[in-house]
Amino acid sequence: MTKDQASSQIVARLFAVHDDIDRRLRAMSGRLPALHPDDAKQAPADDASCNPLVDQPQPLPDMIRDLLGQDSPIMERQREAIARLGVRRCRLVRTPGDYYEWSLEKRKKFLKAPSVSCLCKSMVMVNKKAPLDGTDPSMSPYYLVIFQYERRFDNDKLIEHLRSTAAPPMPAKKRYNFRVAPEDDSFRLSGFIHNAVSPLGFAHMEIPFVLDRRIVDTVDFFWLGGGEPDVKLAIGVDEFIRVFKPIVASPVYHDYLGTRAMSSGTRPRLDAGRQRPRIVPTAMLLLYLIMGLITSLPMLPARQLLMTRYHVEPSSMAYLLGIVSIPWFIKPVLGFWTDSFPIYQERRRPYIAVAMVGSLIVNLLLAYAASRLTPIAVIILLLTLATAMTVLGEVAINSIVIVNAKLETNHEVGTLQSTCWIWRAIGMIVGSGLGGLALKHLTSDAVEVVFTAVGSCAVAGLAMVPFLFEAKLVHGQVDSFATRLRHLAHFWRQRDVLHLTFFVVILNGMPTIPDTFLYWMRNRLGFDFGFFGNLDVVKHCAHLAMAVLFRASLRQVPIRQLLATTIAVSAMLGLSTIVVVQRWNLALRVPDQLFVLVDTLATAVCKELMLMPIVILAARIAPDGVEGSSYSGIMAIWNLSRIVSEEMGGVLTYALGVTSATYDRMWILVLICNLCALIPLAALRLLPEAPAPAYHEVAPPPEKPALRPVPSAGLQRRVPSGTDAEPLITCSASTA
C-alpha cells in the first residue's frame, strides 16, 4: 500500500468515527447545535437562506485537516483527475454525517437535484469466471457499474449485453458470474473505500465503466460517490460519456407487470433531461385530434362505396373489411421497425412524417379511383394502404406517450393516456359527423370529397411534426437487431404478459355482427347513411365521456371489478337488441331511431370501459427501448381479436341464413353473440387487481437543470444536517 493510500484510509476512517459520534450525540440530545444554544439561536438550521456555519464550532473533519496542514488527499486526487481528464462540467459537495439515514427525497432536496432519478450509485463488480488478465471489454474481470438508486442491479441483463457485444463467437453464458467485489479488491482497484467509489481519480482506469441507459435517457446530470463517504460528485451525462467512454447498457430490472418497485420512500419525478422525450402539449393533442379525424372520417363513405356501387353482401362485407384491417394486426412489426431503425437519430418523429405523407398520397388516389369505374380489388388495396399509414402514425405517436405513461405512479395511472384519448375521441366525433353530413348532402361525389378531406387532414398532421420534441439518440443507445429480438422474446415469455394476451383474445374475440346489423337497419328500418353518421357521432361521444370519466374517477377502481361489471352489463344491454329486431319496441311506443341510438350509446360506453384498463396495462408492461413493438403487439392482438370476432360473426350470419333480404333468424344471431360475451368473466383471474407500480411520476418539465460554474474552487467546510449543499470543487469550461 502506498503512502497516499494509507493516508486516505486513515482520514476516511477518522471521518467514519466522527460520523458515528455525531449520530450518537444526535440520538442523545436531538441536534448537535443544541449543545451550543447561543450559536443555535443565531440562525435555524432548517432555514436554507441562512449560513448555519457562521460562528459555530468547527466540525471535527475540518479540524483534522487543519492538524494535517493540508486538504484531504482524496480531494487533491480529485483536483488532479479533473485537470488530467479535461473534465469541464462537474461539482463536488460535502454532505452531513447522517446523509445515508435520509430518504431519497430528502437527499434530493439537499443536493438541489431536480429528481431522485439523478441520485446514482457506483459499484465495483467482479466476474469470477473471467481470466484475471483479460483485456476484452466484454470479458473483463472487473467493471464499475453505475445505476440509479431506485433501480435494482440485474446480473442477467449485464451478462446479456456483454455477450451480445462480444466479438464472434459469442461467449457462453457460463463464463460470466458477477458479484459485488470485496471491499479490499474494490479499494485496491479504485483507491476509494466503501460508499465512496468515484470515477474521478479511479486508480485503474483500464477497468470498463458501465452506465445505465436509464440515466442517459432521463437525466441531464447525475450524482454519485465523490471519493469520500460524505462527498458527492455531480457530473453531466454528456461530459461523463465524453471523458470515460462507458458501456451504455441496462444492467437493471425492467418494470414488467407484477414486478414490485423498490421501496425508496418516495416516487421520483421525470427530469426534463437531455434525453427525455418531452411532449409539447398543444402539438401532441392536436395530432391525436387529427388521427381521430383520419381514422373515422372515411369509415362510413368506404362502407357506402362497397354497399351501393359494388353491391357487397353482409357476409362478404366482414371479409373485405377484414382485409382492409390487416395493418392493425401487423402493428407490432411496424412498432419493432420504428424501435430498431431510427431515421436521423430519431425513432418517432420521422415515422409520423412518413405516415402523414403516405396518407395524403393514398387518399388522393382513393378519391381519384372512387370517381371512376375501378375494380374492387384496387379499392380494397388502396383502403388497406391507407389503413397502414394510419397504423404507422399511431405506432409512432403512441410510443412517445407510452414512455411517459410507464412512469406514472398507481395514483396517477391512466392520466396521460386518457387525456390523449379524449382528444382522439373528439377527432372521431368530428370525423364521423362530417362523414355522415357529406353522404347526406353530397349525393353524387360525397366519397371523393371525403377522401380528399382526409388527405387535407394528413397535411395538417404533417405540419404538427416540427413542433414535437424528440431527443436524438446518442452512440451506444440503440441495441443491435438481434439484441432487440432477444429483449422482445424475453418480454413475451413473461407469465403476466401471456396472461394479459390470453385475456385480450378472449375478451375481444367473441363473435360480433356490426356489419350484419348495419344491413338490417338499412334494409328493414330504412335508415339512411346520414343517420348512420349520427350513430357514429353518438358512439364517439360515449368514448369521449368515458375517457373523461375514467380519467376523473375510474382509474382507481380495481381492474377485475371494473371489467367484471362492464362485461356483465354489456351482455345484458346487448340482449336488448332483440327487442328492436323483433319490433317489440313499437308496442312500447319507442321509436326505432331512439332505441337504436340508446343501444349504440350503451354498447359504446361498455366497450370503452373494457378497453381503457387493457390500454393502461399494456403501456405499464412495455419494457425500455422496445415500447413501440411491445405495446403495439398487445394492441395488435386486441385489433386482431376484433377482426376474428367479426369474421366469426360473418360465419354465424352465413350459417343461420341471414342475408340482405332474409332476417328471420336475426334474433337467434343476436342471442348467441351476447351469451358468448359472458365467457371472458371466467378468465378475469388472469389479470392483476391493479397495474404494476412504477418508479417515476410524470410531471411538467421543470427548468432544465444546469451545472452552473462557481468562481471558488476551494474546499468547503463540512455541512451540518439540514442545510443546502454547497460545492467543494467545481469546474466549468473556463476552469478546466
Describe the 3D structure.
- It is a multi-pass membrane protein.
- The chain crosses the membrane at residues 279-297, 317-338, 350-370, 376-401, 421-443, 449-469, 497-519, 562-581, 666-687.
- InterPro entries: BT1, MFS_trans_sf, YbaK/aa-tRNA-synt-asso_dom_sf.
- Residues 701-736 are annotated as: Disordered.
- Helices cover 54% and strands 6% of the residues.
- With 736 residues, the chain is of the alpha+beta class.
- It folds into 2 domains: 64-249, YbaK protein; 282-473 and 481-686, Growth Hormone, Chain: A (Up-down Bundle), CATH 1.20.1250.20.
- A hairpin with a 5-residue loop joins strand 6 and strand 7.
- Helix 12 (314-324) runs antiparallel to helix 27 (627-655) and helix 16 (376-405) packs antiparallel against helix 17 (415-441).
- The chain is elongated.
The multimeric state of the shown protein is single chain
Low-confidence stretches: 29-70, 255-280, 692-726, 732-736
Structural domains: how many = 2
Going across the major beta sheet, what is the strand order?
Answer: 4-2-3-5-8
Q: Would you tell me which CATH topology of the largest domain applies?
A: Growth Hormone, Chain: A
Question: What helical percentage do the residues reach?
Answer: 40-55%
Largest sheet, in brief, is: 5 strands, mixed
Looking at CATH, the homologous superfamily of the largest domain is: MFS general substrate transporter like domains
